[in-house]
Amino acid sequence: MDTDWRIIRGFPEHLCQQAAALYFEAFAGKIGGILGRDGRGESFVASVMNPGFAICAVSDDGASLLGIAGFKTAEGSLVGGSLADMTAAYGWFGGLWRGLLLSALERDLTDGQLLMDGIAVAAQARGKGIGAALLDAVCKEAARRSVGHVRLDVIDTNPRAKALYLRKGFVAEAVERTGIMRPVFGFSSATRMVRAVSP
């Protein structure tokens, strides 16, 4: 099937701001209230993004980022950042409380698993199969790294994403609830899903 886009590993520097904007827009409901929807959140994401942990869909001319999937390993993640990065952006007090809240969303790595660190497709590019292609590419990346499983979490407010993951062979393993933190994070529960991959 002919497409007007292609899948690449990482992203060039000129697409960093597009990557940050796309990622932040996709997860604003989850992190926007913490990082700020006044431009600071998007700027912070841009400052800590590591393209070495991304797989992207770009337009054929390379000028537009159409989709992005991040992953996390023991070496790093697409969107990381330390407490020092947080305090540099928000000040000592602002960085401290934001760091504490975001740490509640952190997921531990497990041996033999590649952990997905978010997936997003630009609004104008949806319906082209980009999300499915990104998931396939992440699974290939896991196999390339000799990792047997890909793991992700999907929140209860995103049923379309969960349906895609199920279609692509992911299996639900467990559900974690946010409890009293629901008003902060904007969702009630997250389902952990896993897919086995072959080298």
TrEMBL record:
One of its GO terms (molecular function) is acyltransferase activity, transferring groups other than amino-acyl groups. The keyword Acyltransferase applies. This is GNAT family N-acetyltransferase. Residues 6-198 form the N-acetyltransferase domain. Keywords: Acyltransferase, Transferase. CDD domains: NAT_SF.
